[in-house]
Design brief:
The protein is an alpha+beta fold. It is built from two helices and ten strands. The strands form two sheets. Strands 3-4-5-6-7-8-9-10 form an eight-stranded antiparallel barrel. The chain has a two-stranded antiparallel ribbon with strand order 1-2.
Length: 147
């Protein structure tokens, strides 16, 4: 049977597709609102001054599958990373000093050769006594120990 010049089975399929598109759009819109909420509203983000106080003149130890990488953040804006204990020295300079700064509630850092000299910025969250959860702007994240 034809309805509006089409076979009825196509109309049912078209209606089913429309329902899926509408439901998917509602779900996507709901998720976008949920994910767009600022981290501070969730109690997770650290302010500029909190970040400086948490890591300035301290060593932050990142745990990787290859071993631990200590990063020493000085209040003068320099950061020294030491990956010599990881066995990754054949891939990059085992120890390097770069710069760090805080901008818009994110800690940013740049090394001369590590990561091809690119700048990376991180959102930091308190993860309990002596620990920080870090999330890089590309979504990569982990837990670090503060010493």
């Amino acid at each position: 049977m034809k309805l509006f010049g089409r076979n009825r089975s196509y109309c049912v399929a078209d209606q089913f597709s429309l329902v899926i598109v509408v439901k998917s759009s509602i779900i996507a819109l709901t998720l976008s609102f949920a994910l767009a909420r600022p981290a501070v509203a969730l109690g997770n983000g650290m302010s500029d001054s909190d970040i400086r106080a948490a890591i300035g003149d301290r060593t932050v130890v990142l745990r990787t599958t290859y071993g631990s990488i200590p990063l020493t953040y000085r209040s003068d804006g320099s950061v020294t990373g030491d990956g010599s204990g990881t066995g990754l020295g054949r891939f990059f300079a085992p120890k390097e000093t770069g710069q760090w700064w805080v901008s818009e509630s994110r800690m940013c850092q740049k090394f001369p050769t590590w990561y091809d000299g690119r700048t990376f910025c991180f959102t930091l969250q308190n993860a309990g006594a002596g620990k920080l959860k870090w999330t890089r702007e590309d979504g990569y994240s982990g837990i670090a120990e503060i010493r």
